[in-house]
Amino acid sequence: MTPAIDIQQLGKRYGALAALDHIDLVIQPGEFFALLGPNGAGKTTLISILAGLTRPTHGSAKVMGYDVLSEYRAARKRLGVVPQELVYDPFFTVREMLVIQSGYFGIQGNDAWIDEILYRLDLADKAHTNLRALSGGMKRRVLIAQALVHKPPVIILDEPTAGVDVDLRQSLWQFIQHLNQEGHTVVLTTHYLEEAEALCNRVAMLKQGRIVALDSMRNLVRSIQDYTLELRLSTDALPAALTAWPVHHDGNLYSFKIKDYAEIESVLSILRTSGIRILEMQLLQPDLEDVFVNIMESVPAGAS
Ligand SMILES: Nc1ncnc2c1ncn2[C@@H]1O[C@H](COP(=O)(O)OP(=O)(O)OP(=O)(O)O)[C@@H](O)[C@H]1O
């Protein structure tokens, strides 16, 4: 099967800085893939190369088998990118802009699909509104509509829900999940890790231009063994027997790292014999955020 995205030894340098450093990444058709990393890790650079907006320094990138440089038009036609910012002519209406965008991809008579996108993104009653008259949230919906207008098999969403209200977030995810179920490949970058955890099947984590983790969501979350036992105590000083325990605290709220249930018993019995009362107790499962923090802390800063 031709991969949806096939990246080999991809690199981008800005002077001495390696924004991307020998990236290998293959994403299969139908995946819902998360591309995660702290600010400056290289996510936007990678997306810009796939969209043909930035030239790599070395290596290759293909979309549905088409090289983003030597077969730019064929590759671009198969890709829908929802960027962080809207670039538009403010005098067009929403619908006019979508018709023009369809023409750009050589598509005539796209009305039925444009109507469906407008409906799904709750933009139908704004179809004849000028782009400049839209609110920030509405403009973001238009960005998504614009990326989908040519029904691309591969959809990349670059932080689509930053600053977006709960309603739009939910309707957006329903629509994107529906497109994914219909076979579209979806690549998502987001700083909302719980969103990535809920939606994506596989994850790549980038740090300083390198892939530092690449696995299924399941395996990554399972790779963390530690639970967190959160206790609010009647004191903000721990008994001596617990001071060596891996623990963070904020006032009298303590977070103990726990490897198994027997350790919970040990902590509780030490507290009991020390006469310390438990005011609140919660056992937290590891999540993608724990994985992210662990990986980002454990991987040494790369030379660039
Ligand atoms: N045009 C440019 N000139 C010089 N350096 C650049 C340029 N574009 C990006 N960089 C640098 O390349 C690195 C990667 O940036 P990039 O925007 O790809 O990161 P990111 O992972 O998308 O970050 P964010 O989460 O903040 O959007 C950063 O150190 C950035 O400063």
From TrEMBL:
Pfam families associated with the record: ABC_tran
Protein name: ABC-2 type transport system ATP-binding protein
TM helices/strands, residue ranges: none
Record's signal peptide: none
SUPFAM superfamilies per the UniProt record, alphabetical: P-loop containing nucleoside triphosphate hydrolases
Domain ABC transporter: 5-233
Cited InterPro entries: AAA+_ATPase, ABC_transporter-like_ATP-bd, ABC_transporter-like_CS, ABC_transporter_ATP-binding, P-loop_NTPase
Keywords: ATP-binding, Cell membrane, Membrane, Nucleotide-binding, Transport
GO molecular function, one term: ATP binding
Coiled coil: none
Native source organism of the sequence: Nitrosomonas halophila
